[in-house]
Amino acid sequence: MADKDVVGRAGEERAARYFQQHGFDVLARNWRCRSGEIDLVVADEGAVVIVEVKTRRGEAFGHPFEAIDARKRARLWRLAAAWVTEHRDSVRGRRLRIDAIGLTGEDPDTAVLEHLVDVEVP
What we know:
Layout: H1 3-21, E1 25-33, E2 36-43, E3 47-56, H2 70-86, H3 88-91, E4 95-104, E5 112-116
Parallel strand pairs: 3-4
Antiparallel strand pairs: 1-2, 2-3, 4-5
């Protein structure tokens, strides 16, 4: 596995812990379908959240959230629809939203974590 993939997986693990510490259950990690992959799916009593995790060692290539452009947001919503189709009972009675976690720092375990709630539809 490439170093960037190891860092990315560590960032996803940190994001999962973050959501669990805030009262969410992790429903899925690295869920895949023909259209792509969802990093995390988490839920609390009121919401099911599709989570995009972006981990960067620094900002030389821009802030992590800059990678979530209109095209990426549209793709995330398509992936969310595909996940909901397969897991209707998990969503019933809850709001569906997309959040982003940005991690910036050499070590994902100590990196600065930013949580962007409810990424808007493009």
